[in-house]
Amino acid sequence: MAGSKVQRHAAPVRHQVVQSLREDILDGELAPGERLLENALCESYGVSRTVVREALRQLESENLITMLPGRGPIVTVLTAHDIKSLYEVRRSLEGLAGELFARNASDEQAAGLAALLERMETSYLHGTVSSREESKAEFYERLLEGGGNPVLESSLRGVHTRIGLFRRYAFLDEHRVAISMQELRLVVHHAAVLRDPVEARRHCEQHIQLAGELAVLEYDKRVNQADPDAVPIAI
Predict the structure, then answer these.
(1) What domain range is 45 assigned to?
(2) Where are the alpha helices (DSSP H) in the chain?
(3) What pTM was estimated for this model as a whole?
């Protein structure tokens, strides 16, 4: 069982266990379909059963864990249709985010997004998995803030939570990161420089189209590596 004893002074214990479990799932230490035994988790993280159950409920709400009747919690297993459905929604939402930014962002917000893109040449293109995650998260924060639509912001954050696993795959692939960086340059150019809502939306949607195709392939590969007898995902 993956995991390590949590440090009780740094943050609420439940929050630390949630973070540790989430990271183990996103890193592939806990594979899709793997059972999560409460006793083993308590021993692994050095916490009580109550804390483990609270953490599992939180991760179930994020769709990273599925509760099966008679079996208990497992790491969520997705089908190709599940993944494609998520990315269809993500593509539409992020397209709208790019369009709204081009329409609504202040000059200061547009300049801030352009400045972030410059920093991402180091933190994203030539960065670590951690710095890539942080800089991409900041990119979306700025994009959504400039768009000025709190309903869209809430909806897209929910989708991003559900696809955390697939975003991590992309941050591990140097070739995909280079392509992604070029796509982000086009998004920023049309949304923050030219302020063209139609083209900003189109480039945001193109960015997610390729990401969704990669997500299906990478997830299929990892599921089969974890369980060679698993039925392949039909693409």
Answers:
(1) 13-75
(2) 13-26, 38-45, 49-61, 80-104, 107-123, 129-147, 150-162, 164-172, 174-188, 197-226
(3) 0.80
> Per the domain annotation, does 106 fall within a domain?
yes
Residues 52 and 89 occupy one common structural domain: no
DSSP SS3 for 95: helix
Amino acid identity, position 56: L
| Ramachandran angles phi, psi of 75, nearest 5° | -70, 130
| Token couple for 7 | 């440090």
Write the CA distances from 92 to 76, 159, 187, integer angstroms: 24, 11, 15
In this structure, the dihedral spanned by the alpha carbons of residues 69, 231, 163 and 211, taken in order and rounded to 10 degrees, is -170
- CA quadruple 83, 157, 188, 191: dihedral positive or negative? positive
Q: How many domains does the chain have?
A: 2
Residue 233 is given by DSSP the state P
Domain assignment present for residue 4? The answer is no
16-71 pLDDT tens trace:
999 999 888 888 788 889 999 999 999 998 999 999 999 999 999 888 999 999 89
Angle at 29 between CA 24 and CA 32, to 5 degrees: 95
- Please state which of the ranges 85-89, 220-224, 227-231 shows the lowest mean pLDDT: 227-231
The whole-angstrom separation of Cα 74 and Cα 51 is 17
Mean pLDDT of the chain: 88
pLDDT class of 9 with cuts at 50, 70, 90: very low
